[in-house]
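Methods — Computational structure assignment.
A single polypeptide chain was analysed. Its primary sequence is given first, followed by the predicted tertiary structure written as structure tokens.
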Amino acid sequence: MPFLLSSTYASGLPDLVSVVAVTPFAEPKLLAYSADTAALLQIPAAFFQQDDAADYLSGKKLFDGSKPIAQKYAGHQFGQYNPELGDGRGLLLGDVKGADGKNYDLHLKGAGRTPYSRFGDGRAVLRSSIREFLASEAMYHLGIPTSRALSLVGSNEPVQRETIEQGAMVIRVCPSHIRFGHFEHCFYTGDKNQLQRLVDFTLQQHFPDCLNAENSALAMLQQVVVRTAELISQWQAVGFNHGVMNTDNMSILGLSFDYGPYAFLDDYQPGYICNHSDHSGRYAFDEQPGIGLWNLNALAHALSPLIAVEDLRAALGLYEPTLVSHYMALMGKKLGLATIEPTDRALIGQWLALLQQQKQDYTLSFRRLADFSDDATGSSIRDHMLDLVAFDQWAELYRARLAKESATTAERKTQMNSVNPLYILRNYLAQQAIEAAEQGDTAPLHELMLVLQRPYQLQPGKETFAAPPPDWGKGMDISCSS
């Protein structure tokens, strides 16, 4: 066995879990695994070559020490409180110490029905499992805090969604699966003792530096506010739309979490909605910063029995300045600016307006901007613009701003290419990998995953992965069903 699992969460909070047996696939098949994540968990590569590797990675056989449990939590879904939530299709197998000395949960998604499945079957399908697997690893290599994915296991088991699809499972790896919704559950059931024990457990396991604070719960909340603000600023800078920012999908550690109908922007549309179930646009791309604060307010309300109202307000007050300052710093780097000046906010805003008005690809426009020249010819980005007058007017301002920087043109290009990805997980690329895998061909999945592991580096022969999407691949209709 590669490791011995512990049951830290189940032992510490037994009243917030249900012990549930995995409902295994009859014939699981290992389709892919992340060598990076395996190394983090100190799993030797030879394990994945074993005949029974898929059995362990799908719960048909259990790792030593594994005691699968489903966590109970609640949350606000599209703004409405739902007390009936919990792990409805995933089981926490246990936790293990990683190569970095930190503990990591192993969570098996698609493991079958639990007490919190409601009307669901507890399964995940190959489509959503591939999307989870790819997104986890793509976001990690972009440098964005995220849960990871260890393995993807497929099956011949039919699962009913809009159509009949193939069942699959993913092992998600994360330092903690505690969500904002855990605290909401304890608050709304009125069990202050349970809330205190959840806070104490979270502090001990994940925020030990807060334990000596005058009010440790407040110190923890302050850190959660800052981490969440920084995370969402990274989403906005890279052009990532989560799609379902319900409070039960918000990590207490400020990680990207619960990948469903996500999308990376193609053409820059600030109001882009990636989830076809989001009829009001609550979770549109440009709404994410405000929703982050809304969700933190819900968390703060849940902690109100332990923290004074004025302290809650002060903690929440950290959100906007943190988000704005972090976002501006990220966007400045994307434009090749080493420092941020007061006028840079307008410069950045005008650049984004230009992309929106001229329907330019968000990711490729920043990448092309690295070739911006100091003379009046502009750069290759100019060749892609529809309104050259508007671009030239902005370019004159940008050129003047670059003149204040000390970096050479070559140095600026290198720096910009180190923060502006060339390869992102576009939905149409994921869809192509999904359709091939559904026909038994996982080669496109493996090729895409390898490309996404080096998002900032030019990869000869992989030009198609850096090309703008075809018209059919833009604004794809993505469902959150799994």
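Note: The two ends are 30 Å apart (CA to CA).
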